[in-house]
Design goal:
globular; binds flavin mononucleotide; single chain; alpha/beta; two-stranded antiparallel ribbon; TIM Barrel; 367 residues
């Protein structure tokens, strides 16, 4: 059998998965408008990819305040919950499993996306040198520089943790198999973790313990809804995407891995930084995380089946996430099993649009 480690079943917390090929979270900006509601087209797209051991949904805003890009789906209204329920039902009917990625963008946003044109919120009032995506007042969509954020008062944090819990509860009602908390890629919780974006002088800034406090409060709120065995977390240590810097990336990752171990969450998912211009993770770093965390450890970023199989065989990974390969190959697991060639993804159709570059990639046909 090809890639026997990658294609073997696994247990992840409470989940029993058919293989270790995970579909990484992929923003595709195709939620139905108005209202950012998951649609039948989105259900078809995910169901086509139900062969993955686990699908991690595209990042999904937990509140209006948490949105940084037009046309991304939410999970804070009744229609959004109902839309996701149709997606989950389609994936389950096709034999797959799916968790929802819970997202608050923090400073990666713009008044055009916010209630009453408000400023985006962040741990500190530091503007990111990054872009977000808006529909302008004249109706034309555009990438624009992110706006200057307002620093959150610590009295506002419990309500945001509550928004995560409410979104997690909606995900549960929609039938998801679990949730992944997005603490990666320069969004709100990552902004708290990293020294470049968090310059607070209260209990939520300064040393590692303080910078991790709010992300862990959010994690505990979500565990309160789901229990730890259906909760995963995504981190991007050393990541530079969205203008991130962290002087203590190594120590923070180890501190968090210990906190996740204590809470016995199902998995830790690392978005490796080098696909987006960041550094390559060292073997020592990988060993350190493995040493601290005995739940499922998942790595994503630039893998092919061979390297993924070797990582799992080595014991450093329990599963590997595939992003761009899943965009272009709905039947990725079958292609791996037959060592069949892969379709190449078309970057022009990653974000927005309809079926083209979304549900029309062909499956492999044996000749
Ligand atoms: C079009 C696109 C959308 C993405 N959206 C998300 C997202 O919503 N959440 C997230 O955590 N990462 C997101 N990522 C990062 C991917 O999950 C993954 O880490 C990255 O694509 C590297 O893996 P790959 O080399 O297998 O594509 C996105 C990447 C791409 C290319």
């Amino acid at each position: 059998m090809a890639y026997p480690h990658l294609l073997s079943p696994m247990r992840c917390g409470a989940l029993h998965l058919n293989n270790r090929v995970w579909m990484a979270p992929l923003t595709r900006s195709r939620a139905a408008q108005p209202g950012d509601v998951p649609s039948e087209l989105n259900a078809e797209y995910y169901a086509q990819r139900a062969n993955a051991g686990l699908i991690v949904s595209e990042a999904t805003q937990i509140s209006r305040q948490g949105q940084g890009y037009a046309w991304t789906p939410g999970i804070y209204t009744e229609p959004q919950e109902a839309g996701w329920q149709r997606v989950v039902q389609a994936v389950h009917a096709a034999g797959g499993k799916i968790v929802l990625q819970l997202w608050h963008v923090g400073r990666i946003s713009h008044p055009l996306l916010q209630e009453n044109g408000a400023a985006p919120v962040a741990p500190s009032a530091i503007t990111a040198n990054a872009q977000c995506f808006v529909v302008q007042p004249d109706g034309t969509p555009a990438n624009v520089p992110t706006a200057s954020p307002r620093a959150l008062d610590s009295s506002e944090l419990p309500a945001i943790a509550q928004d995560y819990a409410a979104a997690a509860a909606r995900a549960k009602r929609a039938g998801f198999d679990g949730v992944e908390i997005h603490m990666a890629n320069g969004y709100l919780l990552d902004q708290f973790l990293c020294t470049g974006s968090n310059q607070r002088t209260d209990d939520y800034g300064g040393n590692i313990e303080n910078r991790a406090r709010f992300p862990l409060e959010v994690l505990d709120a979500v565990i309160g809804v789901w229990g730890p065995e259906r909760v995963g977390v995504r981190l991007s240590p050393f990541g530079t995407f969205n203008d991130m810097q962290d002087r203590e990336a190594d120590a923070m990752a180890v501190y968090l891995a210990r906190a996740f171990q204590e809470r016995e969450i199902a998995y830790l998912h690392i978005a490796e930084p080098d696909w987006a211009g960041g550094p390559t993770l060292s073997d020592e770093f990988r060993h350190n995380l493995r040493h601290e965390f005995s739940g499922s450890l998942v790595w994503t970023g630039g893998y092919d089946a061979q390297r993924a199989d070797e990582m799992i065989q080595s014991g450093l990974a329990d599963a590997i996430g595939f992003g761009r390969p899943y965009i272009a190959n709905p039947d990725l697991v079958n292609r791996f099993a037959h060592q069949a060639p892969l379709n190449a993804p078309d970057v022009n159709t990653f974000y927005g649009g309809g079926t083209a570059g979304y549900t029309d990639y062909p499956c492999w046909q044996p000749s």
